[in-house]
Amino acid sequence: MNQTGTGLRQRTYARSFVFADPANITNSFIYVVLDTQSGDTAVRYGILQGLQTLGGKYGNFREHNVAVGGTHQHSGPGGWMNYLLPQIATLGFDKQTYTAIVDGALLSIQRAYDSLAPSTISVGTINIEDANINRSPYSYLANPAAERAQYSSDTDTTMTLLTFDRLSDGKTTGVLSFFSVHGTSLYNNNTLVTGDNKGVAAYLFERGATNDARFADNFVAGFSQSSVGDLSPNVLGPFCEDTGLPCDFKTSTCNGRAEFCQARGPYFNEGDNGAKSAFEIGRRQYNAAFQLYGQISSGSGVLLAGESAVASYHTYQNMSGYEFISPFNGRLLSTCYAALGSSFGGGTSDGPGAFDFTQNNTSPNPFWRLVRGGLHQPEPEQIKCQSPKQILFDLGAMNNPYAWAPDIVDIQALRLGQLLVIVSPSEITTMSGRRWKATIAGAAQSVLSISDPIVVLASPADSYAHYVTTEEEYTVQRYEGASTLYGPNQLAAYVNLSLAYLPYLGVPNAVAQLPKLPEGPRPPVTTNYSLAFVPGVALDSPPFGHSFGDVLSSSTPYFYMVGDYVSATFVGANPRNDLRLEKTYAAVEMNIDGIWEVVRTDADWNLVFEWKQRNVLLGTSQVTLTWHIEDSYYLSGWGNALQRGIYRLHYYGESKNAFGTISSFEGVGPEFSLQI
Predict the structure, then answer these.
(1) Where do the Neutral/alkaline non-lysosomal ceramidase C-terminal domain residues begin and end (predicted)?
(2) Which of 136, 232, 277, 308 is catalytic?
C-alpha cells in the first residue's frame, strides 16, 4: 500500500498477435501479451466483450480462441484485478486503470488484425545463461535426484523465439519470445511505472527495428513469460541488507527475519531502486532474441507448418475438490479448496515479507492461527488436504464481500503447426514446467501425430491463480509451495486436464468427430461491485503567482555531454486527469532548422516523468522531467539516435478546476546544448 505511483519511467503496452489459417480465416486465435502482472479474469472478460461489440470480423473471437498473458512485471499501476486479495494491496478496484488495460488490448488487437497477411512462421531456441537464477534452490533440491540429473541446472535458460515474415515482401512484422524470468528487477521502493526487464527487451527490439530495413513498419516484439515461478532476475543472489552476508539457504532470512533478505540484480549498487538492473536484464533478453532472430533468418529455424496449422481450445475448471487420475503415476487424486500458507507471508528474496513470516515454514504459529480464525477457520478436511501447508488464508471459503481468489481457472492451449502453447493461469516453477511440457510433448506424438512437437508454456495468463509447484517442492513450503492454491496435486491436475483436451488441437476433421468441448462453470466478474477506495482527483491549482506549466527550476549548465542528467521542474497537475494514451506527458525536443522536433517521449527509458503533490487540499503539485542523456550502453542497437544540437524539455498536462472541467496546458524548459 505504501508503493504509491509517482510517475513514469516507461509506458506499458499491450502487444497482440493474430494467427489465422489462410485456407479458412475464421479458424484463428489471438495471443495478447500485456505489460501487466498477469492475465486476469475481468480483463479477459472485458476484452471478449469489446471484441463482440466491435462485431464483424472480430465476432469470431470468443472464449476458445483468445488468450491473454502478462509479462509479470511488478512495477505497473494496480487496482485492475478481479479478486479481492490482490485488490486489498491497491485500495480496491480502479476503473480507470482497468479500462486503460482493456482498451489498450482491444486497440492492439485491431492493429494486429489490420496487418494480417500471408506469412511464414519460424521458431528457434537459444540459451541465456546470465538473465535468471532459481530463487528457491532449496525447494528444487526436493525433486528426485534422477529427475534433476536430466537437466544441467535448476534454472530454465531456454528462450524460444517465433518470427513472422510477410510473404509479399519478406519483411518481418513481429517476433514473439517465451523466456522465464520474474519482472522483479525493480525493488519494492520503486514508484515509477515501467514494464520491468521484459518491457525493456521489447522496447529495445522495437526501437532498433526502426532503423533496420528487414523489419516492417509497426513491427511488434512480444516478450512473453513462461516457467516464471521460481526464477529471479536478481542474478547475484540474495544477501542480507544489514550484514552483507548471504541469506539463509532454507528460509531466505537474516537472523530469522525475512525483511532484510534482498536479492541483488547486476547493478544493485547503483542506488536507483533497481532501474539499471532492469535495463540490463532486459538488454540480455533483447541481445539473445536479436541474435536468435539473425540465426533463424539465416535458415537455422524450424518452419511451422502442418494440416492443423491453427487450433485452440478453452474451458473453465472448478479446482475445488477436483478428482482425477494422476498422469504421472495412475493414482486417484484430488485437489483442495484454495488456500495460501504462512510462508506466503514471508515473501521472496525478490520482495521480502514482513512480521515473523519466513519461507520453509511448516510449523503452526498460535498468533497467526488466531488471526486466521478471525477470517475463516479451515475445516479439518481442508487442513489435511493442504498439509503440510500451514494455512494462513483459507481462500476457497472466503467469499465476503466477494471471492478473495479463484476457484475456477482457465484451461487453454494453442497450436501453430508443430508448436503447442500451454496457457497456464498459475506461475509455474522450473521443474513443474519441465514435467508439464515433457508430458504434453510425449502425448502430442501419438494423439496429434506430431513427430517432433515443440511445447512452450505461457503464464500467468487468462486469470491469476498464484503458483504451482511439483509435489516434492510443495512439501518444502517455501513461498512458491505456500502459494500453490489447490494443494500438492495441483500440477498433476493441470497436466491431466491438458491431456484430456489435447485432441481438440487436432486436424479439423478429427476435432469435428469429438464431443463438444464443455464451457465449464464461469468464474465471477467483479468489476461492477468491487470495493474501491482510491480517491479521484478533486481539483488542481497552481501556487500563488504561477500558472500551470511554469518552470519552477531547471538544470543550470547550458552545455551537456552524453551520460549527463538534464532536468526541469514545472507547475503541474494530477496526471490521472488524462492518461494521455497514445500521447505523452514528456518530450525531449531538438531544434532542427528552426522547428522543434520530438526525439524522446515518456515511452523512452531514459526520460523520466515524476509527479509530486505539494498540497492535497489546495491541489498544488509539481512535475519534474529528467533526461539521462544516453551513452553507448543505453543506445545499443539504436543507430545514430543522438546528435549534437540544441534541445529542450517539454511537459504536457491537464488540470481539473473546482467545477470538474479539465483543461490542457504545456510547459517548456530552457534550451540547452548537447555536445557530442
Answers:
(1) 514-673
(2) 232
